Amino acid sequence: MDARRSAPIDAIAAAIRRERERVGLSLSELAKRAGVAKSTLSQLEAGTGNPSVETLWALGTALDVPFSRLVEPRVAPMIVIRAGEGPAVPASKANYYGTLLSACPPGARRDIYLITVEPGPAREADAHLPGSIEHVVVISGRLRAGLPGHLVDLDPGDYAMFAGDVDHRYEALAAGTAAVLVMEHV
């Protein structure tokens, strides 16, 4: 993975530490609640780990914060993220990257991502914060997404909305699949 596709390790390390301290959890307690090894969490806070999307979602859920709070970039008066750039975080078991495009501003509870998915193993996503809703618009390729037993095939321009607070999945049906994902946290 080149530098443009790497996770923002320093920002993630600072955010995990900041949020853990905000809620008053020890490293051990947060690791236990998130279901990750204490050594993994320690490495992440030290900025030496390589977090997966799944690990960051688990930590966000354990801390009761949106995923974006753990990877959000600096706030600027105008933000432009060129294609192929941005803080991309890989999934551990699928050829899937989530790139945070816009973290939710104060008072709002939504985040915007660009997701890229290639054919191969599906991205099996665990439930997010209670009340989370996912909005997906496919921009290229073909995507199968939704809840187990309620998956839908989407083409460019198609939109789907489904609960994000239950297990769900994303699967590329064609090479070069990309979509805009809006996570709504109610």
Overall CATH class of the largest domain: Mainly Beta
Give the domain tally.
Answer: 2
β content, as a range?
25-35%
What is the number of helical segments per DSSP (H or I, 4+ residues)? 5
Poorly predicted segments: 1-5
Termini Cα gap:
34 Å
Instruction: Please give the largest β-sheet.
Output: 6 strands, antiparallel
Number of strands: 10
InterPro entries: Cro/C1-type_HTH, Cupin_2, Lambda_DNA-bd_dom_sf, RmlC-like_jellyroll, RmlC_Cupin_sf, TransReg_Diox_bact_type
Keywords: DNA-binding
Organism: Virgisporangium aurantiacum
Pfam family, one: Cupin_2
For the structure shown, list the relevant keywords.
186 residues; alpha+beta; 434 Repressor (Amino-terminal Domain); Jelly Rolls; six-stranded antiparallel sheet; four-stranded antiparallel sheet; disordered N terminus
Structure write-up:
This protein has 186 residues and is an alpha+beta fold. It folds into 2 domains: 69 residues, Orthogonal Bundle (434 Repressor (Amino-terminal Domain)), CATH 1.10.260.40; 98 residues, Jelly Rolls (Sandwich). The protein is 25% helix and 32% strand. The chain has 5 helices and 10 strands, in the order αααααββββββββββ. The protein has a 6-stranded antiparallel beta sheet, with no helix packed on it. A 4-stranded antiparallel beta sheet has the order 4-9-6-7, with no helix packed on it. Strand 1 and strand 2 form a beta hairpin. Helix 2 crosses helix 4. The protein is globular. Keywords: DNA-binding.
